[in-house]
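To illustrate the input format used throughout this study, we show a single complete record. The first block contains the structure-token representation of the backbone; no residue identities are included at this stage. The design step must infer an amino acid for every position from geometry alone.
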């Protein structure tokens, strides 16, 4: 017989990691952003855990670009998006 996962403890662990990694964000901001301001009243622990884990991954992937060359490349690519999509459609 397999042991049931303890979603409550896992939720607390994710919230603790978020607090350590982003101490300027309050818990309300984490929960609101992770749940896209959904109603918390009826959400299952499993769903809450999944939303928090997804949010944590997205937050960790979002980082500041400090290299000026990298920023210039991003801007240049953004300005050429229309042409890039047009070239893909022709292929």
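Output of the design step:
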């Amino acid at each position: 017989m397999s042991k049931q996962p303890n979603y409550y403890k896992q939720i607390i662990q994710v919230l603790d990691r978020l607090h350590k990694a982003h101490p300027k964000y309050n818990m309300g901001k984490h929960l609101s952003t992770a749940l896209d301001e959904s109603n918390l009243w009826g959400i299952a622990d499993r769903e809450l855990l999944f939303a928090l884990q997804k949010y944590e991954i997205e937050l960790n992937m979002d980082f500041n670009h400090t290299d000026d060359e990298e920023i210039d490349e991003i801007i240049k690519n953004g300005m050429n998006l229309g042409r890039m999509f047009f070239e893909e459609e022709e292929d």
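Structural context for interpreting the output: The mean pLDDT is 84. Residues 45-61 form the longest helix (17 residues).
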